[in-house]
Design goal:
This protein is about 70% helix and about 0% strand. The protein has helices at about 1-15, 25-30, 35-60, 70-90, 90-100, 110-120, 125-155, 175-200; strands at about 155, 160. Helix 3 packs antiparallel against helix 7, helix 4 (about 70-90) packs across helix 5 (about 90-100) and helix 6 packs antiparallel against helix 7. The longest helix is centred in the C-terminal third of the chain and has 31 residues, at about 125-155.
Length: about 200
């Protein structure tokens, strides 16, 4: 059980795909203009990541090594298509807001990296836990970035006004994504360095 907990914790903190590995930057910077978008994108990627990890782990001994990447992409694309159709059917406004970035989950390097580095080498339960941890870590990162950008850039949170008289519109524009991510990474590095200094 402790091994599964460690695997789950890796995705949330130690190997967080956004804040530690710095992968999946395209959706991270593009869709985080509002908290609803960040949560929607993160949870969609989490479902795809968890299900594709499970399927790839189940089939890992049957997939020939020469076609493994193509097989992984086909598996991931199947789950992405299902999620895309479900969003269009039940959450059309979110689907419209996220646009092309839902289909692009197919080639998201977070999902492909976990398929190659983890699911293809581990059992089903551990692969599922890894997918869930990585996905929720990605969701947590997107939610934090998008909440900061929405509050500072639009003066709202989940669309509800906060009474900010002059929001900084630049925060919901592309430069705002880079600024927010850079500031968060800077704060995290300062905290990490201080902890390292205390330990030594």
């Amino acid at each position: 059980m402790s091994d599964l907990l460690k695997t789950f914790k890796n995705g949330l903190f130690d190997e967080n795909p956004t804040f530690v590995q710095l992968i999946g930057m395209c959706p991270t910077l593009a869709v985080t203009t509002s908290l609803a978008n960040g949560i929607g994108m993160g949870l969609s990627a989490t479902v795809v990541l968890t299900l594709s990890n499970i399927m790839i782990s189940l089939l890992r001994r049957l997939i020939p090594s020469k076609v493994r990447i193509a097989a992984y992409v086909a598996i991931i694309a199947t789950f992405v298509t299902v999620i895309d159709l479900l969003l269009q059917a039940f959450l059309p406004s979110l689907s419209d807001s996220l646009g092309i970035f839902i289909p692009l989950i197919v080639v998201n390097c977070i999902i492909l990296a976990r398929a190659e580095a983890f699911a293809s080498k581990n059992g089903v339960v551990k692969s599922a836990v890894d997918g869930l941890g990585m996905g929720l870590g990605f969701t947590m990162a997107l939610s934090l970035i998008s909440a900061i950008r929405e509050i500072l850039g639009a003066g709202t949170i989940l669309g509800y006004p906060l009474g900010i008289s002059a929001p900084a519109t630049v925060m919901i524009l592309p430069p705002g994504g880079f600024l927010t991510l850079g500031l968060i990474l800077g704060v995290m590095n300062v905290i990490k360095n201080r902890r390292g200094g205390k330990k030594s």
